[in-house]
Amino acid sequence: MVPNQNNLLKAKVLNKMTVHQAVSALSHANPGLRFIPLCPADHHGVNEKHKKKCSKPGKVPLLAKWPQKASNDPTTLENWFKGCDNLNLGMTTGGISGVIGFDIDGHYGQTKMERLFCSSIPLTWQFSTPGGGSRYLFCIPEGEKLRKLTDVNSKAQHEELALLADGQMTVMPPSRHHNGGKYLWIEGRGPGDIPLANLPENVLIQLRKGSLKLTNEEQNIPIITLGSSLLEASPPDHLKTLSVKCKVIDEAVTQQSLDGCDETHWHHIVSMLVRSGYTETALAFSQMSTKHDTHSEKRIHQMDEEREHATYGSTRCTTFGCSKEQIKKCHGNLRMDSQTNESTNSPIALLSLDNSSSKKPSIQQYNALLKGNYGIHHNNLCQIKYKNDEEPEYKPLANFVARIYKSISKTNGEEKNIFYVLDGVLLKTKKRLSPIEIPAVEFERMNWVFNWGPEPNIYPGNGMRDKVRFVIQSTADMAKHEQVYTHLGWVKLNGQWSYLHANGALGFSNVKVELDSRLKNYALPEHVSNSKHAMEKSLELLNVAPHRITLALWGITFLSPLCEWLRQEGIEPKFLMWLYGYTGSRKTTLAKLFLSHFGNLLEHPPASFKDTSNSVEKRGFDAKDSLLLIDDYHPTSSLSEKKIMESLAQKVLRGYGDRVSRGRMKHDTSLRTDYLPRGMAIVTAEDMLSGGSSMARLFPVELKKTDIQLNLLTKAQLNSSALSEAMSGYVNWIGQAMNSSEKYNIKDLFINKRNEASHLGVHGRLIEASVWIYLGLQMGLDYAESIGAIANDQQEKLLKEAWDLFLNVAHEQGEQVTEIKSSTKFIKIVSQLLSNKTIYTRPIQENTKIDSIPINSSHVGWHDEKYFYMIPDVIYNQVYQFLSKQGETFPISASMLWRELIDSGLIQPEVEMDKGKKRIRHDKKKLTQDGRLRLLWLRRTATELQMNTNTSRGNKTSQSESYEIVDSIDDM
Q1: What pTM value is reported for the model?
Q2: What are the extents of the domains in the chain?
């Protein structure tokens, strides 16, 4: 039934009405209910005949055939009750009215009620009876036929559970009892407070069987079986803890100390405490009221004696009237019964479960978390079964008990992994089993128990390990859930961008971050005392070395926190900075100084070329929107070490330069997670790399031994703590822009600067690297200008100087890229080999003779005035051997080289038509002294130009004449 929000139907209002007023309010609000008049409790005004026959004053209908005459008509009810305020009010129950009632008397009745409802009595209409009992009302399907049922305690008087169903009625508030007391709605449980709850389906099924008693197999609820020998804390502490954590308990404690709780609340709280092993606490609670007497103590001790064999759990939060929303707020999550889909949370769990690992739970508290027919008996974790006579039978499972007290979700921004934190206790010795953290995927196998040594033991037998697993996993319903981030940089928290660092998240409290040990110093201050001063100290770094060095370093430093923003805009930076110079130039010291913008990072570089490829890859992934230093690419006489370093350098370059997944597989054929770089990086090196495409992926910065101003470097190191303050302020400023609806149009700035440089004819990657560094510089200076750390004219001057410097580097780097292109490298080596006569060619004319054949020289082909006609495999092998003697390898295969030579116009290919399609071959037929052969027709002008390259370098052509810009970011 739908709750009526009329204030007249609230419990506290109805309780103050007369019977006439109450039935009038109820009939108008709930037309489905059927009422009858009952005789007065004092029999005042009834005839003598009724007085003689009536043995239950206040409970007997005054109408003959009352089940048929019961009415919901307001006019009829008005005629019955008007002017008869001493009449009591009755309401019919059963299928006709669609309402049934449960009459509860004494501890036995309440216990049986909770057992019938599996300790999950729904929140419904409820009122107290003057004899100390209570009644619950529930809605059933209209027409449902249920007969009267009772479950009486044969060993005690007035203790029973009775079902009021077809052919019956219940006395209703505010009727009076013959002892002078009143039937009263329980506050918050009246028709105007809450809806009339539907009877749970599992209970309805049981009632249809004609019994209020459940079989053992139908029980699937927590069991508390703690031995009385176990110690507990002092009662006042437990009551105080519960009162702080639970509003319902706090109100009950207050009420108990004033004029005492009603019977229902007293029983709920006392039985909950006793069943969980807190008998002394239950006594202390009862003794707070003057209502407490010897009968109260007798009932509490009786509960204590019975709890060893109890087949039901602690009183649930829903029994106290708590909604699911309130339960989740108090407990953090809902424990749901799989069969009834009802919440099984109990207030006792707030006492039993302490999520702080510093406070170790008692065995009672462990036991209170157990779910299902499991408990602790004779120092063992046991499965409990019940015989026909309801005597418990205990089957030992293990000599320890454990709980999952924390579930940790660790995310790196791309994938999520769950971990469980468990602790436990050996039941016989009470030895603590210290907390362990295990991956959730390993929990089911139970091998993690060995982390506690040989003492924890599971009994042998089929299914034993799985039962122990079930018991322990069942405790996870009350576990604390913790979110952990394992990376740096931007993440959305509560819909807002926030920057993660080693100590948490800027602008948010209680955010946990776990990082690789080499990244743990990436920590930014939460509060900045003087943003302007901090930024001024950062700007002073520009004077530590020439601006061609420091402007680039400062630019990439302030570009790093922009990576996520630029990624969102589709213009993620794709390059790294290559800071190179001879040993002693202090390149690592300078790099660490700029790195200190992200934390206390002056000591050890977070990555180096001594690390494994996988570890460097992972740190690049974790250092999201941050700056990573990869230190010490250096020459070595060891060929194997050189290959390892070059291999790592190429992987790093391609990682930062392409940021594309490699699609590697695991052993089970599933794809392995690729850890692509998500921030920026600086490599410190003593040498440059070879390979054209590799060179296009880096922005070089050369540092000479005399470039560093040592006095300024030392001063900057002493003030390095200010650098992280400067970055913290900058990151907060960026965050405000990212969270703003009117975003800074950073993409337009990038595109405009790239277009501005397009006329220079420099390789697209190199131009874009210059633009990205410039973008970082401009954003950093914009922030500095906004807080008064730099004047606008000085900012403009630095930006203009930087743009010219960056484009000059891009132009020079473009020349290097062209010079070390694979085809260019091939021509250069062939020219050298011909020049030093390591190889030779014969004239193509048959009648032409060679004056002398060079000693130890290899024949590679023929020549005429226009071409060298070279044997393809022979010349490729000669070049390959030449590089091999120098500890190098040719960067591309022969087939790729021939294609590049064709594209560069350096060889004359053969063009054929095959079935209407053009087919291009790198080798072309030529008649030689040895017959008609397929040869590589290499233009002689290419080798002659290369031989004179040193002369031609002195006369450089203009940028616009030499190179043509490539528009795509991903070209090459």
Answers
A1: 0.59
A2: 7-214, 353-482, 531-817, 822-962
